[in-house]
Design brief:
The chain is of the alpha+beta class. The chain is built from three helices and 15 strands. The strands form three sheets. The protein has an eight-stranded antiparallel sheet. It starts with a helix and ends in a 13-residue tail after the last strand.
Length: 255
């Protein structure tokens, strides 16, 4: 009898997991359709953004170049020098200069793996076959399975986003040290609200967090966030260009 109950439970978990995986796949398709504003637009191959980034020292101009799936380069200019965050398929670099002095940030394979998310302008659309996405529903664990928990006398109040039916989470478990991307979606607008990347450092669970502000439409019809979090501070989009031919020199790390 116990074996039968266990089998039934596993069957239910498998069925629910499959259903929610399909939900996530359907959502991603609708999300892509929404971003294209219901008319045929070319796939995004490159993006150039002129930004203003707010830091603790003030607001400074910055430029972000993205060559889809290949290169991400964010360059901010301050009176004391410039800072660059650079990601490609091989490495991650964070460099800042004050006068002639360069400061190079931490870099390792795990950090590079987390940052590769930004090689796509729309991170949610960077789903790969080796890292499938799953829609998370109440009662699910981080792997998208229905979790069995013991009854408790008192629990903390759930986050407000868990009480809002228009907000849904999609998780993308990553095949690297139990990391995962968690995407928070507004189902009414089909817009990405937040991305968290879960990782572990010295046995402690930590999160990278990126928040997206209001969305606007480019003249071509692409939807894009007008504000978002960067390594240097909150960025506000001043101008944006899609699928312009980028100068190879702009994509290099130069000081």
């Amino acid at each position: 009898m116990k074996l039968k109950i266990t089998f039934c439970y596993l069957l239910v978990v498998f069925t629910l997991s499959t259903a929610f995986a399909q939900d996530a796949k359907d959502f991603i398709s609708k999300h892509r359709f929404k971003l294209m504003e219901e008319k045929p637009l070319k796939p995004i191959q490159s993006v150039k953004l002129n930004l203003e980034i707010e830091t603790k020292d003030g607001k400074f101009p910055a430029t972000l170049w993205i060559l889809e799936n290949m290169i991400y380069k964010l360059e901010m200019v301050e009176p004391k020098g410039k800072s660059i965050e650079f990601i490609d398929q091989q490495s991650y670099k964070l460099i800042s200069a004050s006068g002639k002095e360069k400061q190079i940030g931490e870099t390792n394979s795990e950090l590079h793996f987390r940052k590769k998310l930004w090689l796509n302008f729309y991170p949610l659309l960077s789903s790969r076959e080796d890292a499938p996405m799953k829609m998370l529903e109440p009662g699910m664990d981080m792997n998208g399975n229905m979790a069995i928990t013991a009854p408790v006398l008192a629990v903390d109040a759930p986050p407000s986003e868990d009480l809002d039916p228009s907000l849904k989470k999609i998780v993308q478990p990553l095949p690297f040290n139990d990391m995962a991307h968690i995407f928070l979606i507004d189902m009414k607008t089909m817009h990405l609200v937040r991305v968290e990347t879960r990782y572990f450092q010295e046995g402690q669970e930590k999160f990278d967090k990126v928040v997206y502000g209001p969305y606007a439409k480019s003249p071509e019809g692409y939807s894009y966030p007008t504000t978002f979090t960067t390594a240097f501070g909150k960025a506000t989009v001043k101008t944006i260009q899609f699928n312009q031919k980028l100068n190879p020199a702009d994509l290099e790390v130069k000081f």
